[in-house]
Amino acid sequence: MNYTVIVPFYNEEKNISRFNVQIIKNIKKNLTDDRIFEIIYVDDGSLDKTFNELKQLNNEDIETSIIKHRTNLSQSAALNTGISHSKYENLIILDGDLQNDPEDLINMLKEYEKGVDMIIGWRKKRKDSFFSKTLPSIIANYIVRLFSKSKIHDHGCAFKIFKKDTIDDLTNWGDFHRLLAARLANNGYNVKEVEVKHNSRIHGSSNYGFSRILKVVIDLFYLKFFKNYKRQSIYFFGIFSFFSFLLSLVSFIYMLVLKFSYNTSFIQTPLPLLVIFLLMIGLIFLFIGILAQLLINQDNKTLNKQSNIKEKIVLNKK
Predict the structure, then answer these.
(1) What is the CATH number of the domain that holds 171?
(2) Residue 131 located in a structural domain
(3) DSSP assignment letter at 18
């Protein structure tokens, strides 16, 4: 089987060299007559010396492509760039911050080659701050399992192996990497998890926290009801919609409290009108978001997909 290893980077200059040494070592451990590997590193518009560090690499006989985005887009955009430039039918993705351990590659490959559509890592023993990283992840994973067909413990783990042909317009929308396992499971693919190591971050800082929970909720809403629509900018409208629904719910609960605890008639307060108004505003924002995204998708068909790629370098081309 042939594999493309895709690794996105954003401001990870101090991790490049060490990560590359580890991933090359483990790729060579798994090289056989039946396995061929290539590596694609994507610099998602880093502001530090990440791209310069990448250009200094010498990966001997492993073909390595280095792609730089002009501007920072997102982790999913970087992965999409890697996927669009990949040569092989099986994809391995992981973070370049050294929290994913390349030593786990061999176990993941063994399970993947048993015939599943995706293997995803399970960071059972996380080495992150509990309140800023682990707790939001626990909440987000619980919500995902509650509203999707996926039984995966750790949807946020970046270490995955999957077939390229599972990625299409039904799965590749929004920050698709975050809920890719749930989206594939929802579309009937066979997804399995493997327990992996999780290392403490040595250099740099993570951009994830409690804000991911809101994005997961919006993702799940569309996964459940609008999964045929590819969308990225929908989060802008989704945030307003979410808070409108939330305020509507709070107003409704307060209205019930006044009624049953203080014997205040519904018609004595403006709360019934406020509940309906906020509910309607939330629905309007949702459907404006859908219509806006449909227009964006149509417009994107005419855009050059390479327009955000500033430079591409291929090392040890075969």
Answers:
(1) 3.90.550.10
(2) yes
(3) H
Spatial contact of 31 and 2, defined as CB atoms under 8 Å apart: no
Q: Structural domain tally of the chain?
A: 1
Specify the amino acid at residue 156: G
Say if 104 falls within a structural domain. yes
Q: Which pLDDT value is given to residue 257?
A: 92
What three-state secondary structure class fits 150? coil
The structure tokens listed for 109 are 């490959």
Strands 90-93 and 309-315: unpaired
- Domain residue limits at 93: 2-208+306-315
pLDDT at residue 301, rounded to an integer: 47
What are 157's two structure tokens? 């783990």
Alpha-carbon distance of 25 to 45, in angstroms, equals 27
- Joined tokens for residue 244: 């409108």
Residue 134 has pLDDT above 50, yes or no: yes
What are 209-236's pLDDT values in tens digits? 555 566 666 666 666 555 544 445 566 6
Residues 99 and 201 sit within 8 Å (Cβ to Cβ) = yes
